[in-house]
């Protein structure tokens, strides 16, 4: 029986191997109404194989999450054995105490955190086992929730980076894509998507990258329409160019569905600092669409798997295995971290933890700074929501305004600005820009808005009031005059895109590209300062 199964598997693979790549077939059929039967056959067989591999990965996940302590013990032993050398037998105890002593907890220096946008610079090995598992299970979950989204030509990626953590080898890498995989030209990717009105799924590396795509689409709509009209003379593309212009004339709200009437879901990879972009996209350009992230990724790799595309906000399973994940209660002091971490089986529902990752390649044990709240369990593994990043905390007098707290205050303030929609923001402590000028230290806040061109003094003051409502400590410091009022600046279009390009140009730029909300490099803060319009 096993031999028969292997022969069948080999036959199917050879069938795919002998067929020309699906992207080539799709290009040959670009002027026709539908794909050839050969392309459809390749698509069907390739998806059958992918679903089989995904089912195998699902069974592995089930076994590991049912026996999470055993799975993490194996990962722990693997790290210890690598540290002692591949040819040396594993000596001594392999309990957590031994592991902590062998791998002391490290934290990035302040300068490294600034350079990396607040991330801990662990090795950039995101193409590991957890990443492959996240990709396969994410595609299977997406196909189950939105079957038509993964039909031939049903999805397109509009950024050079993919939301899927691990690239799939041929013949799977071209499945359902309307553009050639691996393309690095953002304009070419967007044009290919715009030429395909039947899309069911729209992909982008992260939500902030997709925000840049839609902003660029509005700014360069006329040029894109001309490129579409000139790209294929004699085909029905001039009509598509007219549809693009007509859709843009109606404004940003619901633009995606006007461009692609059959669109069902937006797929982006979740990383730090994406919540505002998701909210802005959902309220404007992608109104009426579902959002799905296959995984939560940090600089150390994939740390959470999303098995529930139907959830409005991302829920992630923290998987056992490599990289080894430990949980550190947020209430503990830094000097106590090494003694108080717990493994996944010990996580308690309702509690918040910092993530500690031991990278299997570099054998570094780092506190990432990402904070999660345990909301449930998948077998014996915790299911979490990501709350924020401790490296994104504001503190000029010891008040410690966290990322989630500041975002809540800013959201309340923007809600009181008539017609305004928040697109992006970053903060700077006044000492970074030397902007106190003899006055009390304060926050400099840079915002990108839609629907509001100028900020009145009354509107600017509302942020400071909201911060005082949320933080009693901040309110007390403001009352005593120890902290000055937050200063709000409106930046022009493209300011945050320029910031992201500057971050991506750094040699140590991590994967995935997190969006820093607190800037600690003067050059980055000055980049936004030069683009202030109000």
Automatic annotation (TrEMBL):
Keywords: Signal
MF GO annotations: acid-amino acid ligase activity
Entry's transmembrane regions: none
Domain GH3 middle as annotated: residue spans: 319-389
Domain GH3 C-terminal, residue spans: 408-502
Signal peptide from the UniProt entry: 1-25
Pfam families linked to this entry: GH3_C, GH3_M, GH3_N_vert
Assigned GO CC terms: cytoplasm
Domain GH3: residue ranges: 217-282
Database matches in PANTHER family: GH3 DOMAIN-CONTAINING PROTEIN
Protein name as catalogued: GH3 domain-containing protein
UniProt source species: Hipposideros armiger
Gene: GHDC
């Amino acid at each position: 029986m096993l031999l028969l199964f292997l022969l069948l598997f080999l036959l199917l693979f050879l069938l795919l191997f002998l067929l020309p790549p699906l992207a080539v077939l799709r290009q040959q059929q670009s002027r026709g109404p539908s794909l050839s039967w050969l392309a459809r056959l390749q698509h069907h067989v390739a998806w059958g194989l992918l679903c089989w591999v995904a089912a195998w990965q699902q069974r592995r996940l089930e076994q590991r999450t049912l026996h999470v302590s055993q799975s993490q013990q194996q990962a722990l032993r693997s790290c210890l054995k690598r540290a002692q050398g591949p040819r040396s037998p594993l000596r001594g105890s392999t309990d957590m105490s031994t592991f902590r002593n062998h791998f002391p907890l490290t934290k990035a220096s302040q300068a490294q955190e600034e350079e990396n946008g607040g991330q801990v610079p662990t090795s950039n090995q995101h193409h590991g086992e957890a990443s492959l598992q996240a990709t396969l299970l994410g595609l299977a979950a997406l196909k189950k929730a939105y079957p038509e989204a993964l039909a031939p030509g049903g999805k397109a990626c509009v950024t050079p980076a993919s939301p899927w953590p691990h690239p799939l080898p041929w013949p799977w890498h071209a499945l359902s894509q309307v553009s050639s995989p691996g393309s690095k030209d953002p304009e070419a990717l967007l044009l290919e998507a715009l030429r395909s009105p039947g899309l069911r799924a729209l992909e982008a590396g992260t939500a902030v990258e997709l925000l840049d795509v839609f902003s660029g689409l509005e700014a360069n709509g006329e040029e894109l329409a001309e490129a579409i009209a000139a790209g294929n003379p004699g085909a029905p593309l001039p009509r598509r160019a007219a549809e693009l212009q007509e859709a843009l004339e109606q404004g940003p709200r619901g633009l995606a569905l006007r461009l692609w009437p059959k669109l069902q879901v937006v797929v982006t990879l979740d990383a730090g600092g994406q919540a505002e972009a998701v909210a802005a996209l959902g309220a404007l350009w992608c109104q009426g669409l579902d959002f799905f992230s296959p995984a939560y990724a940090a600089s150390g790799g994939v740390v959470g798997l999303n098995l529930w595309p139907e959830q409005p906000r991302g829920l992630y399973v923290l998987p056992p295995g490599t990289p080894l994940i430990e949980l550190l209660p947020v209430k503990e002091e830094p000097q106590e971290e090494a003694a108080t971490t717990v493994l996944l089986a010990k996580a308690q529902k309702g509690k918040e933890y910092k993530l500690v990752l031991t990278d299997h390649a570099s054998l570094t044990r780092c506190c990432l700074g990402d904070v999660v709240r345990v909301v449930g369990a998948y077998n014996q593994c915790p299911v979490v929501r990501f709350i924020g990043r401790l490296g994104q905390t504001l503190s000029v007098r010891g008040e410690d305004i966290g990322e989630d707290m500041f975002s809540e205050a800013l959201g309340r303030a923007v809600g009181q600005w008539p017609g305004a929609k928040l697109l992006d923001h970053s903060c700077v402590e006044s000492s970074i820009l030397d902007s106190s000028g003899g006055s009390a230290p304060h926050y400099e806040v840079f915002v990108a808005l839609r629907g509001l061109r100028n900020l009145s003094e009354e509107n600017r003051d509302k942020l400071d009031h909201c911060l005082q409502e949320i933080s009693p400590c901040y309110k007390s410091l403001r009352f005593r005059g120890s902290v000055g009022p937050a200063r709000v600046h409106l930046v022009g279009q493209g300011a945050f895109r320029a910031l992201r390009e500057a971050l991506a140009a750094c040699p140590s730029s991590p994967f995935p590209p997190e969006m820093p909300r607190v800037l600690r490099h003067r050059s980055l803060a000055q980049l936004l300062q030069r683009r202030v319009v109000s």
